[in-house]
Amino acid sequence: MNAYISLTALTGGGANSLDGIAVAGLLDGSPAIVMLAPPDNRVYFHVWDEDSALAESSPDVIAADDNGANPGRWILKKVYVTSPYGTVPIANGGTDSTSAATAIAALGGVAHSLAAAVNDFIVASGAGVFIKKTLAEVKTILGLGSAAYVDLDTDGTLAANSDTKVATQKAVKTYADGLVVGLLDDRGSYDASGNVWPSTGGSGTAGAILKGDLWYISVTGTLGGVLAAVGSSIRALVNTPGQTAGNWDMLNVGLGYTPENVANKRTSFQVTPDDTHYPSEKLVKDSLDGKISHSLATALSDMLFASGVGAFVKKTLAEGRTLLGLDGATTDILVGGGVVTAPVWTTATGTGPPVRQTNATLITPALGTPTSGTLTNCTGLPQAGITGLTTADSPVFVTVKLSGLGTLNIPKHVDDATGLADTTINVTANNEVTNPSQPAFVATLGSSLLNVTGDDTVYTIVFDTEVKDQGADFNGTTTFTAPVTGLYSFAASVMILGMSAAHGYCVVSIVTSNRTFRNYIGSAAMNIFDPWTLLLSVTADMDAGDTAMVTVAVGTGTKVVDISGNATTPGTHFSGYLVC
Predict the structure, then answer these.
(1) 248 pLDDT above the threshold of 90
(2) pTM of the full predicted structure?
(3) Is the CATH number 2.60.120.40 carried by domain 440-578?
């Protein structure tokens, strides 16, 4: 809209003069009317030309005081002459040399009785003919309609929040641009094999990266020390995020890994050891090699013997045998000895190496004729030559009989004093193995969970029906706690309702204390099926006390996504058991 401005002076500055108007944001072609008071009685019609650089020459060209030497001038288009007098006075009653025509020209106006009200105009209706027009009629002739003065607002924040001010085009654009900052902007695929965050291709000027710019990984890499698997998404959290990992967010669909903490690896030992740093393989090998190598060893089987307190000397194998009393063939062995008693050399019988007193394995022994004793833990003994066996016993083997153990249960060794004890591991007559002590559980969702995600909310699923909990390790709602350290098998099925093309992804996860396992679908498949059923089966390493639960997250849309539940034919369930 052009501005209609009414003033009372051409120059001189001030709110009522043409050169005092603030022209910042004024539209090209805006009109202004200057009505001079008597005795001038002229009406000037100017138009703003934002490209003009003409020299100021009043009244034809007027420069704005607040525009400096910049282009932009008020250009005179029309001038009208009025007179507050019904007649034009003649000097000296007309007897002087000044004629009526000269007097009117000197006054700069035309006297006419048609002037009936303030701001009336005289407008030519034809050659040599004027007629009176009111202010409203003149505005119509000039194409101004009923426009009032326009109060232009150039503030790009529109802080005035006014019903009377009119914002300029630039102010409206600045305000609108500010509203869309930080919204998600899909920038397509990203090759992460270079192991660096994106540095160009953003939604800003010349590809600058802005907050909300989003990429999907097309080639695997490592970003910020974390594996970025194919299908994962990365999003800028701030404008110009650079290579700072904290300025980015990654939604990873892969299993991930923890990279080596190179900062804590040592290639030499510290003066003061600690439990944080770890040695390299080479450091371990070099250190061990150094402990057992010595320059005194010059031949195979060399030995070191103490030659005194704190001193060793090298001896050859022959010298060592002499010192040990083994020089020459001998059947003597060291027998006895204790804290204060030295062993003595005793002639041995038989062949082969000597055996110890407890748990010895004898190969074809000749036991002689013991006067008393109990022979235990022996198999393969012939009946002949052994007393105390009856004809009812096996003629070939002595059978060891166990008592106090449950029928068909597998026993376990407790300790040497206790021996064997019963377990809960049962073998049926058909060789099926069961163990009611083995941790295992099955939980289902009987009633649907409504509006739990869709807006990036990560929801931990509450399973309201506990079908089986062998070992009481599932808490009845969300969480399984490992009773012992081992490998556990988990399976989850999640039936999801309400996803549409407005949603950008869906992730179902089995979250354990050590790591998180995920199943992911992207935006291209969101509205193909409804419902979606996502399955996830994993074998997880868990320590005693570790936990496992199931989560679901649907993102970039609204929170209208449900998790389907059914008491008789459940599509959402969670189960697990100890493998080993």
Answers:
(1) yes
(2) 0.34
(3) yes
